[in-house]
Write a structure and sequence with these properties.
The complex is a heterotrimer of chains A (about 300), B (about 350) and C (about 250). Chain B is mainly α and about 350 residues long. Chain B contains 15 helices and four strands. The C terminus of chain B is likely disordered. The chains are: A mainly alpha (about 300), B mainly alpha (about 350), C alpha/beta (about 250).
Chain lengths: ~300, ~350, ~250
């Protein structure tokens, strides 16, 4: 393999990996405040992309994206308030099945609203064939948009959790729910907020990636599986490690095309998931003790 | 106690006969086709009920085992070994009578594995894979177990979808009929519709008899103990890892059996049989039936699969099962056919009654 | 002779030495109590003996076999049984069925035989039920046989848990705080029950906080503090042991 081809694969891997990492962070935010794995996480990304495309027919792109994020956040809030909030001591099995049911519901609703068609936002700058050349490596400007917006998103989340009162309250809830409640923090509202936040970042990711990957009513499922793989790789609940894990998985997947038919690309990611679950369920970077020191 | 346990089996057998007679009398034999297919799907569901409801281990990948059974048998009975004739392995197989020669649609020579041998191999493959997958997977709990089984199901789906050997997106078609014994043939031909209806439901009856026995045995009690408090069950001497694995393999074998027979009955199989939505559908039916309620799961399985196969849900098939899942888990997590509810109806008491002191 | 022998057992959790170099023996047919302040490592020691935890180093010898590294179900088959500090009854199962699970290692119907419903499995089932009811009679709770176990009164749940362990027909019974949460009357009944169990030939090792119970029924008492053994003697000697008094009452009062 020539060096420039290598970089081409690497860039593709990093782009996808970033999105996986964002989905993983969405998983982590909800997991840390509730202990729930939200199987509908991938559907937030799909919804964001779909709503963004729809709104873009009416309003300029930045407004459309903002609108998509806000609407998806509302969906997230609604889901939590209608389906999770009022359950009394639900079992893990029950929560798993409820979020699976939700993901199917959202997917089928999307099918009803948007049909089976494949959609995409236009490239933020330039067109599909525009590329920036660094040496012999050609990079689509959209890749830079994905990386840039993801970086801003992670920085903003960091700021939110470290510096703002609300963020600190969420972290307090994640560490010790009872103690946080004794301090007057409403744990229930924090749970709603966690759904809103992860819906929001999912939707934003769905918008920025859609020019590259396109979006379809059922594109959430495989994103969720890979996002979960990344979350597990990094150690569930540990979002900084998830970013590293995301880049790793994205690159592995990208290079796998070089040795295997592209149809098996997803098989690679899932095999990694199974392998990690069997061998090191606490993640590549984590250990059991570090896993308990969860931030977001 | 034993007699009371057998009563539901007898009732089911009578119901099976009654339905056949009724459909013949009403001149609607086509219903039997969907009921036959629903019967084969029920095999998956009753096995999954024991795994999820009794043992407390979720599987979001059981469609994978169904597909492994169906695809293996379908592939073996359609893959033409004739061009490879003369090869060592092929001659050996031929000498043992495992192969059968024939002609394809265009008169070309065809040499394929005999259906009964293919069925046997398919079951063994499914059991072997279930064992290899189950051993590490069942060490996981909760979300991890759900995701791992979902991952396994997705791998099976992606592999059959991406492999041209098994027809990729088109699946395998023209799978030959499966002659069993005494003129009974697993086939979709309408002349043998009644035969096949009784065959499918005979299998379901057999499975139900075996599984009800299991539920009311030492093993069944150990499985329920694992569900209730795994560490305590282990501390009472139950080899929890082995019991969970055995149950997983047993339920996978039942799923594969359903897959093998339905594939020969339909004469084909496609990747949608392996899809995650199918696995979720099975879980939904087990949940509606009441999780730890074999008869509830069977009734719901037949009802919902029958309606789905008749196309009653139109294009909202997946949505219906998603909604069922959601509604049941939100409002009736113990299922619709709940023991406490049904016990109030006197006649049904013996059918749904739990094990009690005699 | 000793039924259980623990040699230099060690277990660390991260930086915490939960059990450090503990050695002791339990004589066959005796009651030995394991006491110590909260966090002294008593339950950890229990779990190490029972196979629920793997020791970092050291050995456990039970009935002539080295059992450290065994799984709990193997230890049970060898003749140990236990109860839990926090009651771990099986929900959605009646009291007698809970006890019947304890008969697991003394019955043998497997998947195949059970599915086929072979006649001997049915006979075995009846025998299991009879044995469970016998145990309930021994414990004086036979009238609760068909009640869902987790809906029983707390004290009775403790009794059922004890019955479940007895159903394993252990030679060594490990009781983790059998009197926790019981009132005074129930505690003294529990003490009598444990003595009766010992009289049937079962060796008992128990963790307990209730000193009256410990001093009344134990033949020997082992005291742990911060994971280390500080005393191992007859109850009377333990009450006068300066180190034990220091640990329990604090340095100033000694």
């Amino acid at each position: 393999m020539s060096l420039d081809l290598f970089f081409q694969y690497l860039v593709a891997g990093i782009t996808y990996g970033t999105i996986y990492a964002i989905v993983a962070i969405g998983f982590n935010i909800i997991y840390n405040t509730t202990g729930i794995i939200n199987f509908a996480q991938g559907e937030f990304v799909m919804l964001g992309g779909m709503i963004g495309v729809t709104l873009h027919a009416l309003v300029p792109m930045p407004v459309a994206i903002a609108g998509a994020v806000v609407v998806t956040m509302l969906v997230g809030a609604l889901i939590e308030m209608l389906f999770i909030r009022w359950l009394r001591r639900p079992s893990v099995l029950r929560l798993i099945i409820i979020t699976i049911g939700l993901s199917i519901g959202i997917r089928e609703l999307a099918l009803l609203l948007w049909g089976e068609g494949v959609r995409a936002l236009p490239y933020f700058t330039g067109t599909a064939v525009t590329s920036l050349s660094i040496g012999d490596v050609h990079i689509s400007p959209q890749v830079l948009w994905v990386l840039g917006i993801s970086a801003v998103m992670v920085a903003a989340l960091n700021f939110f959790f470290a510096r703002t009162l609300l963020g600190r309250q969420m972290r307090a809830c994640a560490c010790n729910r009872e103690a946080a409640q004794l301090c007057g923090i409403s744990a229930k509202n924090m749970v709603t907020l966690s759904f809103v936040l992860s819906a929001g970042i999912g939707a934003l990711a769905g918008c920025v990636i859609s020019p590259i990957t396109y979006v379809q009513y059922d594109s959430g499922t495989s994103l969720a599986l890979k996002g979960f793989t990344v979350a597990i790789l990094g150690g569930l609940g540990n979002s900084m490690a998830a970013i590293a894990a995301g880049l790793l998985l994205g690159s592995l997947e990208s290079f796998s095309i070089w040795v295997m038919p592209a149809a098996y690309k997803d098989v690679i990611a899932i095999s990694i998931l199974l392998l990690i679950l069997f061998v090191r369920p606490t993640g590549l970077f984590g250990n059991a003790e570090a896993a308990r020191l969860k931030d977001y | 106690m034993a007699r009371r346990r057998n009563l539901p089996i007898v009732v089911l057998a009578l119901a099976v006969i009654a339905v056949q007679l009724a459909s013949a009398a009403a001149g609607k034999p086509q219903y039997l086709t969907q009921l036959t297919m629903a019967g084969y799907y029920s095999l998956v569901i009753v096995g999954l009920t024991l795994l999820m409801g009794y043992t407390g281990q979720i599987s979001l990948g059981h469609a994978g085992f169904f597909a492994i059974g169906g695809y293996t048998s379908g592939l073996l009975t359609t893959y033409n070994l004739h061009p490879r004739g003369g090869g060592g392995l092929v001659s050996l197989l031929q000498a043992t009578g495992l192969l059968v020669a024939g002609q394809d649609l265009y008169g070309g020579d065809l040499l394929v594995v005999r259906p009964w041998a293919a069925c046997l191999i398919a079951m063994l493959v499914a059991i072997g894979i279930a064992y290899l997958v189950g051993k590490p997977v069942l060490k996981l709990r909760g979300h991890y177990l759900a995701m791992a089984t979902l991952g396994f199901g997705t791998i099976v789906y992606k592999v059959v979808l991406g492999s041209s050997l098994v027809g990729a997106a088109d699946g395998i078609s023209d799978i030959p009929a499966f002659p069993l014994f005494g003129g009974v043939v697993v086939t979709g031909k309408s002349a043998l519709r009644v035969h096949n209806y009784y065959l499918a439901w005979g299998l379901v009856l057999g499975a139900m008899a075996l599984l009800t026995n299991l539920v009311h045995s030492r093993v069944g009690r150990a499985l329920r103990a694992i569900h209730g408090a795994e560490d305590a069950a282990n501390a009472m001497g139950v080899d929890t890892a082995r019991y969970k694995l055995n149950m997983f393999v047993l339920s996978a074998a039942l799923a594969a059996l359903g897959g093998v027979f339905l594939t020969h009955y339909n004469g084909g199989i496609g990747p949608s049989e392996a899809s995650i939505m199918k696995s979720v559908r099975y879980v939904a039916i087990v949940a509606v039936g009441g999780m730890a309620n074999l008869w509830g799961a069977l009734i719901m399985g037949v009802l919902l699969n029958f309606l789905s196969l008749r196309g009653s849900f139109g294009s909202y098939d997946d949505a219906v099962f998603g909604l069922i899942l959601l509604a049941i888990m939100l409002f009736a997590p113990d299922g619709l056919l709940r023991v406490e509810l049904v016990r109030r109806v006197p006649g049904l008491r013996c059918v749904f009654g739990q094990e009690r002191a005699p | 002779m000793s039924l259980l022998e623990v040699k230099d057992l060690c277990k660390r959790f991260g930086g915490l030495q939960a059990v450090g170099n503990v050695s002791f023996t339990v004589a066959a047919g005796s009651i030995k109590a394991l006491i110590g302040p909260n966090g002294a490592g008593k339950t950890t020691l229990f779990n190490l003996i029972f196979g629920a935890l793997l020791p970092d180093s050291g050995q456990v010898w039970f009935d002539g076999q080295q059992t450290d590294g065994w799984q709990p179900h193997q230890v049970v088959a060898a003749g140990m049984a236990r109860t839990f500090q926090h009651i771990r009854l099986f929900p959605k199962m009646s009291a007698w069925e809970n006890i019947a699970v304890g008969r697991h290692v003394h019955s043998r119907a497997g998947f195949l035989a059970s599915m086929l419903g072979l006649p001997w499995t049915r006979r075995e089932q009846r025998a299991v039920r009879e044995k469970a009811l016998d145990i309930m009679r021994f414990l004086g709770v036979e009238d609760r046989a068909d009640v869902e176990a987790t809906s029983l009164a707390y004290g009775q749940q403790r009794i059922i848990e004890l019955g479940r362990a007895l159903a394993c027909e252990p030679t060594l019974l490990l009781l983790d705080e059998p009197a926790a949460g019981l009132n005074m009357r129930e505690t003294s009944e529990m003490a009598k029950l444990i003595a009766r169990i010992r009289d049937t030939g079962v060796t008992v090792l128990l963790v307990e906080h209730d000193m009256t119970l410990v001093m009344n029924i134990s033949d020997e008492v082992l005291v742990l503090s911060y994971g280390e053994k500080i005393a191992d003697d007859k109850p009377l000697a333990i009450q006068k042991h300066p180190e034990v008094i220091k640990v329990y009452l604090g340095e100033d009062d000694a």
